[in-house]
Amino acid sequence: MAGESASFDDHEHDANASFIKNHEHAGGKKLSEEIAGMLGSLKPFPESPGYCIYKVSEPIRQSNEQAYTPQVISIGPFHRNNPKLQSMEEFKLRYLQSFRDRDKINLEDLVSAIKGAEEGARERYSEPIKLGSDDFLKMILVDAIFIIEFFRKNWSKIWTKYDRRILTPWLSSRVQMDLILLENQLPFFIIEKIYDIAFPSLSKDHPFIELTFCQFQYFNVQGYEPRDFWSSGIIILHFTDLLRNFCLPPCERQPERSVGIIKEMHSATQLAEIGLKFKKITSNSSTICSPLELKYADGVLEIPCFQLDITTEIHARNLVALEECHFPEDAYITDYYILLSFLIKTGEDMDLLVREQIIANWLDGVVATSMINKLSEKSFYSQMNSHYQKMAQKLNGFYASQSKLTWRRALFSTPLIGASAISAFLLLLFTCVQSLCSVLSLKYF
Asked: Which of 59, 201, 262, 282 sits between 20 and 30 A of 39, alpha carbons compared?
């Protein structure tokens, strides 16, 4: 009986093990099929140039929400449903109406052109665009025509009474700022395409890029011309990208970025206290300098002059955000603000550079200093402009050598002070020796 019972138990155990094994196999097969289905639902990764219009990452956005969010007008899909921006939608439609009626534009031709470029336009956005084809095309057409009309009116200085009644100086300036935000962009190529179709004769003599340079001339600190971009093979992705290129030196003057970062550097005031001289670099017709091109040699730090005003933070933050998303290997703007944050740590540092006419500050000193220090605080980086790295090492070396020299000069500034210092040192040494002898005498007594 015992043998039969054991045999029965063994059989039952084998049956349970077989059931569990089959169940696990079936469950594993089902799970693997679900995972395969998830992988199969992925859309193909976009071909180059791919994404170039991004939503700003949350950690960066938290530092200043408004710097990345349009305040009066939505361009593109990311903010089109923001209720605070709906008042400008009618204004955009009126611009489309005047555009069509004045220039006798065939909207059907424009729609057909956009339809052919729809896929390429969608691929420029980092987020899936949850709009059907018709709604997407309407958005592109309305927003692009508004931009073209706005730029043309500014270029030709032909503003109607209706324009002036709606576009007050404040609102016009704010529209300009909204047009440089990374999240508020249309692909440049689609606006250019619509412009070329709408104005085939005008576009030959005055291409859209010319109007764009005119519109953003305030940010064109190096006085670039469209031909400079053409000759260098620079392709404009959108307006934020254009403003970044305005800041960069020509390709042949862009230093390599290498592994390594600036971990420590003395501030402007600290450097000035031990003898460093600051000099403003001013561009002229023969030597146009990028704002990023600082120079150091023989105890003199040369810095291109720059202006701080209410537009600076919006401009700078969106360029840094673009680099984080699209140009992490070429983040020259980010490098620049990291370097400035080392130089400008306090209000005294800001005041020093203002006195040297390097900074034209239209902000409160504390606000300006805080802005500089916060611009790159959320940036994570392991590479940096190699020129800045070497310059920081030289400045740290200058500070160390000058500090020793300053101490020696202070110590031996007059024969009397030098003699007193030597006497004090000898007295201290004699006291230490005497104390040591006393201790040894007690030990062996």
From this structure: 59
